[in-house]
Amino acid sequence: MNVWIWGLVLLLAVSSAKWGSGKLAKPLKKLSKQWGFSKVAAASLLALVTASPEVGISTVSAIRSVSDIGLGNMLGSNIIALPLIMTTAYIASRKSFKTNGKEHQQHLENKFFALPKSSVYVLTVPYLLIVGLVAVLTIPEDWRGLQPVDGWIILAAFFIYLGQALWRGKGKGEEVDWNKKEIFLALSGVLAVVFGAYFTVRAAEHIIDYIGISLVIGGLFITSTLSTVPEVFKTWKVVSSGQPTAGSTSVIGDKAITMTLGFFPLAIVTTPISNFQIYWVNIVFVALIPAVFSLLVIYKKETGLKLKDILILNSLYILYLVIILGVIGVY
C-alpha cells in the first residue's frame, strides 16, 4: 500500500481512538459527580479516558512485537504534552468567562493563568514519583529494560496513584440520571479506541519502514505528536468554556496513567532498551518538564502560570529536541 495511504490511515486511526475516548468522558464525569470527587480528582479519573489511546497503542505494539513504537509513543507524548497543553490553555483563557467574574478579569489584566496548588500536590508530585520508579526499574545496568516483574510493580503504582487522587477532597455525591444512549456511545467509544490503536500501530510500522528510521524514533516523533494533537482541541474547547482547571490539569493525570498502564503491556512481553542513550535522555525530560512546571505554578503568591512561564516550558521542549536530535545524529 502506498505510504501516503498509510499516512491517511494513521490520521484516521488516531482520530478514531480520540473520538472513542471522548465518548467515554461523559459517563466518567457523571460518575465523578455521583461519587462526590473534587475537580482535580475528577480530572485524574478523566485521565483514564484521555490516556486510553496511548495505552491502546502500547498494548497493540506489544502484541505485534514492535514494542519500541509503544515505548517511543509514551515517552514522546509525555514530553510534548505539558508544554503544548499549557500553551493552548493559556491562550484559550485570554478571554472573559461568564462564570468566573471579577477574579478572572484580574487574571486577564495581569496576564495570569490561575491553577490550584492541588494540581501540583495531587497530580504532579505523584506523577514524578512514578517517573522515578520507572527510572529505578529500567535504567540500572542489571535491571535495564522492561521485564514482567516491572510491569506488576508499575501496575501497583497506578492503583496507588489513582486511589490517592480520587479520595483526596472527596465530598458528598449527587444524584445523576443515566440513559441507554450514553451507555451505547460509551461502548462504541471502547470499540473505536481499540480500532484506532490497532491501525495506528499498523500504519506507523509501514511509515517508519518507508522512511527508514528506528521504531523508537518513529514512536517518539510520529505517533506521539499525532496522538497529542486531538488533546489540543479538547483543551481549547474546555478552557474556553470557562473550565481552566479541568481543561489543563487532566493532562498530568493522563501522562501518569500513560507511564503506568502504558508500560504494563510492554513489560509483560519483555522490552529491551535498544538505545540506552536515547532512553535516558527521554526519561530525564519526562521528569524535568513537570518538575519545572510544579515550581512555576507554586513559587508565586497566587498559584498559576504567566506568559514567561509558558515560554520557559516551551524552551525546555526545544532544548529536548536539540539534545535528542544530536544524540540521533551520533548514531
UniProtKB/TrEMBL annotation:
Entry-linked InterPro entries: NaCa_Exmemb, NCX_ion-bd_dom_sf
Cellular-component GO terms for this entry: membrane
Domain spans labelled Sodium/calcium exchanger membrane region: 9-163, 183-325
Top-level taxonomic group: Bacteria
UniProt keyword list: Membrane, Transmembrane, Transmembrane helix
Coiled coil segments of this chain: none
Bilayer disposition of the protein: Multi-pass membrane protein
GO biological process, one term: transmembrane transport
Cellular localization per UniProt: Membrane
Spans traversing the lipid bilayer: 74-92, 120-139, 145-162, 183-201, 207-229, 279-299, 311-330
Location, primary (coarse class): membrane
Database matches in Pfam families: Na_Ca_ex (PF01699)
Protein name, entry field: Sodium:calcium exchanger
The organism of origin for this protein: Exobacillus caeni
